[in-house]
TrEMBL record:
Gene3D superfamilies the record matches: alpha/beta hydrolase (3.40.50.1820), Serine carboxypeptidase S28, SKS domain (1.20.120.980)
PANTHER family with a match to the protein in the record: PROTEASE S28 PRO-X CARBOXYPEPTIDASE-RELATED, THYMUS-SPECIFIC SERINE PROTEASE
One Pfam family recorded for the sequence: Peptidase_S28
The protein's name: Clan SC, family S28, unassigned serine peptidase
Amino acid sequence: MEPGRLRRRILGDDNYTFLTFSQNIDHSDPQKGTFKQRYEALFDYTTDNKTAILFIGGESDTFRPRAFNDYMATLCKEFNAAFFMLEHRYFGESFPTDLSYPNIKYLTVDNAIDDLYNFKVKMVEQYKMTDSKWILVGGSYPGLLSAYTRAKYPKEFHASIASSGVVIASNNYEDFDRQIAISLGQSCASVAREIRRRTDELLETDPDWLLATFNMTGLEKENFPLVLGEIFSLGAQYGRRQQLCGPLEDTLITGADPVMAIAKYTREIFTPNYADDDIIGTYSNSRLSVTSTPNGPRAWLWMTCNELAYWQVNSGRLTLRSKKVTQDFFLNQCKTVFSDEMKTPDTDAWNQKWGDLLKKTSRIYYLTGSQDPWTPVCYTAEDSDKIGPNCYVHTIVGQEIGHCRDLSSPQPSDPTDLTRTREHVKAVIHRWLAED
């Protein structure tokens, strides 16, 4: 599951015409030609074009016009900044090639980083922004891009905000499951484990009934354990734990069947809010074909199969995920969808390469949330020996502080630490902008 799925439910406007520019298909070989990459440029909040915020588009099929939300507008006003947003290659309508294998090979993190660099160079020229200071902002996978791009091009990008930036790749991500259990709490997690045990049995004895009860008729039964893991995780990931845990914990009091409780939650809350009202289209193997629409699931699967992994495997005896969800489960999916040549990504080598670079890089603000299951692959205070000089790292504490919560529009009900952190980020950016 991609870390930023909910974004595609809050982005998009069919009545807006985006700008495009010519981007290299392959930055290591410009002779491969160019493609049209979409972007947005907004100058409502700047008077001198001396500062720019580049909000990084990620693994989403849609691209919203204007500032991402009120918080982005707040930052632009605060720093007298121009606002840019670049759509990620192979998502939305920015396609260098089709998604067939091996054409999809041009979808790499390095190419995405070089897209940002090349975009910045061209925008500076087009809008006459010589000597401007650029701040990268991204959340989740774009948070990774924010930090990595600052590390690779420190002279071009002055600072970076990496919100829930998943800078640590993992091909055996057991900690995701463990963090979900912590976020759910002991009672809720215990019910979830009972549901996992029961549904594993039902997959063997009566899979048709199980899939029908969850309104998943048509889903390959081998994919059900993966979907169940998503059902347990996405509410906590996006700060909506109570929607899931309320009904599950009620079964401990009423004696109601927890399988029926999670099935009702799936039909009424999970599918409409986290599966685009189409759980089969979101999780079935059919969504991963070359011609399937939207294209995002196939493109993101390639990124995980090829480089980043983030394979959310079961975590042993107390796992919330089925014992069937293993490294081999994910590798087999990669081989089925793309090629038998696919291999398990070498995430140790990946983390060594980028970790060494990040350790030398200044002016990055790493942010996470106390209930975000992606925190184990983000930098936190425990990773102080890995961050560079003049950097900050903070885990925001508060009720239902999930994935990328700090980038959401500020609300009067926001936890105190979230409000305080946003103010501290602004103060730090002001200080960084005063530096050469």
